[in-house]
Amino acid sequence: MATSFQFTIIGFCLFSLLCFTITFAYVIPRFPSSMLHPALDVNLLSAQNGLYTAKFFTQTLDHFNYNPQSYQTFQQRYLINDTYWGGAKNNAPIFVYMGNEGDIEWFAQNTGFMFETAPYFKALLVFIEHRYYGKSFPFGGNEEVADANTTTVGYMSSTQALADYATLIIDLKNNLSATDSPVVVVGGSYGGMLAAWFRMKYPHVAIGALASSAPILQFLDLVSPYTYTDIITQDYKSESENCYKVIKGSWKQIEDTAQKPGGLEQLRKSFRICKHYISAGALVYWLQMALGSAAMTDYPTPSVFLAPLPAYPVRKMCEAIDNLSAVNETFTKLYAAANIFYNYTGTATCFFLDNTTAPLGGWDWQACTELIMPLGANNEGSMFPPYKWKLRDVEFYCKRVYHIQPRPHWITTEFGGHDIKRVLKRSGSNIIFFNGLRDPWSGGGVLKNISETIVAIVAKEGAHHVDLRFSTTEDPEWLKDIRKREIKIIANWISQYYQDLLNQ
């Protein structure tokens, strides 16, 4: 029986007629976990194997209002592992993962750093699921009800999530009689942003934060909206000039082909698209998602984070293009590259492009309310079609789909961003910002030390939160050194905490 690869396009196009490339469409900026949702392999690393135990906490719906509706509660899931914990009597530390935009089990299964360092620190491990994701939905735990309209999904925000985490951590420590146990928060990607913000907003709850690949500066008027696509372009160009040129020249060819009689059917055959749905815009988005996702997950070892991938997938995709240098057909080359990302195992015989739009809720809701992260493409050297990011495009999309007005300045108002070095140097401490420069999100990350205790660790060859992944025997020395450095810094935080506790 033929096997297909299901890929869902969410929030893809503003217009029903001029929907060909991102030139004409507002595309929701996405982290890896909000782009693809592969099935969790709970048998690989699961509660059954003793990696964690799932529990639920009765959480408050709205932490910031006192009307009757705010006092409603919901069940928030968290995962816990006490295998190596030194116990409350010894004030042993607690490491807490700040849940991202997805099922918390997926993040636990891809954050080996915490499990591998737990024995050294004798730490209790806790992974908290973000509200409105996984199994942590308000309004009876029913996703359809919670995401039904803006009235119910309106309780979804980063500030509510941070308050959830603080409430749960404090309650857990009290129940464990571990009020003096130091808490270190950890997160990658959006979770890394939450970890950094949590340390800023709740310094009385967490003594420090490891914020991996956290683009806390990817907001309006802070960094260029072109950094994301420029980094992806450089990733491919660094592997092969020919690869870069083939990709750059492909978009016009797709456009020209789509406009010819029978052109869409030709594109379907060239890229092995299943006989379900195809449009030029959907195909371009599908291809660009593969290119960008491979750049984000350009890990030095094989991975299954988004899909089964080889080590250095960007290099492999360019090799697939270059190995067909004798072939004049651009689509054949581009398909070979995309096939590395979507079908490395070789089990798929065709691919679905789904034109369905997302329901209210999830990452699209966050990207339409507060997480307004400018992303575009310039036409000077970028391998992507030119697209000038405009706030009005975001406003149009969000008003049309969700009937709400985005708040593009709220994140920097709430957490800061402008003059970040000057502000945090005086108001913050104990934050590690890790960024790999092959990760397109690193353009919005903190790449320089802010103070002696707010440090930036930068890896030239690193990809998206590669430091948090499970270690392997094939890890390069630079990655091993980064993890050792992070452990040393965290150990110093905990040592200083214990010293301060003694002095009290």
UniProtKB/TrEMBL annotation:
Gene3D superfamilies: alpha/beta hydrolase, Serine carboxypeptidase S28, SKS domain. Pfam families: Peptidase_S28. InterPro entries: AB_hydrolase_fold, Peptidase_S28, Ser_carbopepase_S28_SKS. Keywords: Carboxypeptidase, Glycoprotein, Hydrolase, Protease, Signal. GO terms for biological process: proteolysis. SUPFAM superfamilies: alpha/beta-Hydrolases. Belongs to the peptidase S28 family. This is Lysosomal Pro-X carboxypeptidase. The lineage of its organism: Eukaryota, Viridiplantae, Streptophyta, Embryophyta, Tracheophyta.
